[in-house]
Amino acid sequence: MVSVAQEEIDSNEKVALTGSLPDFSQYDIVFLVYPVWWGTIPNAVRTVLQSDDLSRIALYTLITHGGSGAGNSVEDIKAICKAEVSDMALEVFDDDVTDAASEVADWLYKIQKER
To answer: What is the pTM of this model?
Structure first.
């Protein structure tokens, strides 16, 4: 997985998606959950963010990682997408994902209070 991620990031290829995306214009808020790949977003996530007009959307990120934290991923998202990207990103270490329910609930509560 690590070598595939590195090759994908190095190639900077636009990844073809296998399914269709929802009509994002129906939403005010989108929660984007992704793993950090070499300090940034996977190319498939990049493809999604570049393929739709998200300018009316508030985007919140939940990031899983193997020890690097969010890396540059949130800044990279801000650079390629027109959404209002929140700085309230939640970072969850890979080994803690299965036990992160209360952390996610607390994060969602803070977002609700902010809005």
So the answer is: 0.87
